[in-house]
Amino acid sequence: MLNYLGMPVAASAHAGEIDQMMVLVHWLMLVLFVGWSIFFVYVLVRFRSGANPQANYRGVKGRWSTWVEGGVLVAEIVLLAFFSIPFWTRNVDAAPPPENQATVVRVVAEQFAWNVHYPGADGRFGRTEVSLVSADNPLGLDRKDPDAKDDITTINQLNLPIDRPALVHLSSKDVIHSFGLYEMRIKQDAVPGLEMPVWFVPTRAGEYEIACSQLCGLGHYRMRGFITVQSAADYTKWMAEQVKALTP
User: Fold this and answer.
1) Contact 118, 220 (CB under 8 A)
2) Contact in structure between 171 and 196 (CB atoms under 8 Å)
3) Over the stretch 98-113, which tens digit does the pLDDT of each residue have?
4) Sheet containing 103-110, strands listed edge to edge, beginning at the edge strand earlier in sequence
5) Domain limits, the chain
6) What phi, psi does 37 have (nearest 5°)?
7) How confident is the model at residue 202 (pLDDT cuts 50, 70, 90)?
8) Does domain 99-246 correspond to CATH entry 3.50.50.60?
9) Are the C-beta atoms of 235 and 159 separated by less than 8 Å?
């Protein structure tokens, strides 16, 4: 896929549309920049004090500025009506994929780490309790709960199978963080007290960075995780290894 504007590699199904809109917006910005720069130089020369020793309080009259402003307005309406709004409707307002068709995972942000929680083979997340939160149990997962016995937890490591929708339930334990997956063209705030669903389809295998895009404290610089997109077979093998590690 064409790497527009030096952006990170596109690794999700919707990334191409995002890049296309970015290119269109930058073309509009370039046209405006060049146009206003030419106009600025023209005004400096045309209305210099040597050629105009006395001020003209009537000013220059004409309709060309109205046409230019109208053209910019039309371009912005086209970008909104034919690109941005349809994309938002398909990818943000639309309901996420059913949980039985997606890889479902919880990601809980905290200062300064990403806590990842998989529901295990039963597809049900185990109960969590604030009183159980500790250094070795940052999510407060109650292992006595039957639904929690096969749950997988990791820190700063998110594994996903390729070409399958990923549904991430995003939340925060303390302050506002921002879940940034640049190659996936995903960025969503993690707000305390709220659970935000974020979904996308990874289409390119590899290892990518999870960045916090919101200043969240003195340790913000080290809030860095990784997302590994792998084949279905490799993902199944990884999950089996995690389950095996749970066995006493």
Assistant:
1) no
2) yes
3) 877 899 999 999 999 9
4) 152-155, 113-118, 103-110, 166-172, 196-200
5) 4-93, 99-246
6) -65, -45
7) very high
8) no
9) yes
